[in-house]
Amino acid sequence: MNPFAPYEVHLKNRYSCIGPFGRLKITGIFNMLQDAAVEHASKLKISGMDIAEHNLFWVISHYRLEIGKNPEIGDLLYLSTWRSSVNNLYEHRFFKIRDGRDRSIINAVGQWVMVNRKNGRPCRLATYMPESMLSGPAGETDSPFPKIHPLDRTDLEYGFKIRMHDLDLNRHVNNTVYIEWAVETTPGEILETYTPETIDVRFFKESFFQDHITSGTRIEWNNGLPFTIHSIRKSDTGDELAGININWKPMEHS
């Protein structure tokens, strides 16, 4: 199997993934990407389960999501994902979602880092991967992630306590949950009128069961459209766990 060839899965936008406005939930999109990445990595024998046998695990450090059109309930979706190793340091994983008419509607890229479980430090991909997997298509090694705007003013703030349901196989909070916290701290008048056009995420630190979390949001307006800046922090220490920036556009109506 070519380790750099696109891997495609066929999906249907089911009722369980739909939000109150008849569109795929933001967290539903990230879950689809994560599931496709894991499925592809399993085919290549580099999934979290595979590398766990060597006291290694994957963490996601960045995400960028671009939404052209949010799919509706019942839509058939074709999700392609492919990987590129960057300087033996981390992986870039790319995603493209097409609709039933073969139109590209969602594009995304994430950065995966391999971590040594014993000391919690990043390690080189060659620690586990063969040389044949340590390259990638030309033009896919530059950083595709814009700088995250810091939260220097808080307009809205909520607190959360981490549930067992929020944890993943590594027993820390799944990356999709951070997106959920950011959306929950966005005013209802924005959520009811606008939909995300781009979402940029930078993950800084892990969080664990029963930690108390504070999600803060700042709202800016650019040419009449909202731009929200989110920071997820540990309530007791103030340590930043994730920074999230969302550009919003008017909600589509059927």
What does this protein structure show overall?
The protein folds into two domains: 1-142, Thiol Ester Dehydrase, Chain A, CATH 3.10.129.10; 146-254, Hotdog Thioesterase (Thiol Ester Dehydrase, Chain A, Roll). It is built from four helices and ten strands; from the N terminus they run βααβββββααββββ. A hairpin with a 4-residue loop joins β4 (90-99) and β5. The longest helix has 18 residues, at 26-43. The chain has helices spanning 26-43, 48-52, 175-184, 188-191, and strands at 7-12, 56-67, 76-86, 90-99, 104-116, 156-161, 194-203, 212-222, 225-234, 240-250. The mean pLDDT is 92. With 254 residues, it is mainly β. The N and C termini lie far apart (41 Å).
In CATH terms, the superfamily of the largest domain is Hotdog Thioesterase
Radius of gyration: 18 Å
Q: What is the residue-mean pLDDT, rounded to a whole number?
A: 92
Can you name the CATH architecture of the largest domain?
Roll
Number of strands: 10
> What is the first-to-last residue Cα distance?
41 Å
**CA-based shape:** globular
